[in-house]
Amino acid sequence: MEVESVKVHPIDENLDGDICDIKTPISDGTTIIGIIYGHGVMLACDTRTSSGTLVSNKCSRKINRINENIYVCRSGTSAHSQKVIEIIKHYCLSMKSENRKKGRFHEDEVIQDDVADEDIDIDKINNASNFNNNNGNNLVTKHKYFYEDKFMDCNPLVENVAHITKKLIYANNNFLSCGLIFGGYDKQKKQQLYSVNLNGSIIEKYDYAVSGSGSIYIQSYLQDKYKKYMTKKECFDLILNCVKYAMYNDNSSGGIVRIINITKLFVEEYTVTNTQLYFDY
Description:
Blueprint: H1 17-20, E1 27-28, E2 32-37, E3 40-45, E4 49-51, E5 54-57, E6 63-67, E7 70-77, H2 78-104, E8 129-133, E9 140-146, H3 158-171, E10 178-186, E11 190-196, E12 202-205, E13 208-211, H4 219-225, H5 232-249, E14 257-263, E15 266-272
Antiparallel strand pairs: 1-7, 2-3, 2-13, 3-14, 4-5, 6-7, 7-10, 8-9, 9-15, 10-11, 11-12, 14-15
Enzyme class: hydrolase
GO biological process, one term: proteolysis involved in protein catabolic process
Organism: Plasmodium ovale (malaria parasite P. ovale)
């Protein structure tokens, strides 16, 4: 009797690599968005990070402070984007020192220490006021931070920070995988929005910018609902609904919603814990 040879495969070859590979990088498969309105610029994002098919964090922070007047939304590989942000923060500190040497500051004024290198959260700025607004269905928590106006002239320009980041990502795009949306306010160009893509290209946006895996689900909604010179409330409702719709349709987006409002005088952070959508059929 002739017996056919049977090829035996190792057990690990039959397993799904995405599940068993512990070296899968942490990814911010995400929805990040920025919108310019009448008196400022708003940034928003979800909070889910994943490693393959595993949700590694439900409440991560994808909006980070670069300077008191500049914030950034991160997407892509989490480790890459965090390292880029850390480098850009050092550039900002160098720019502050250079601006002070050029006489844009009085010598007796001292620049306060910036956030620690390991702290990628929003730091406490003078005159911070915190309060909760739990009436209604959204369960919104709000924190408000005021600028110190005498230091505004020393702050780096939003445009400069975005272009430095663009050069950094372009020079290392062979192994970097991250996309960023910068939003900020300075005295030269007022509220601004910049999108730095994975390949190192930069686009200045005059209306809105959206990126991440959930962005494809809200592009048409944004084009239909966006209008120039919106009020703060109109912009807040629009950006919140955009992230909610993306979380509803995109498996890589989820958690809660974080929103940053950057204006001429202050920065506000909103945390929306109720992200359910209600449909009338």
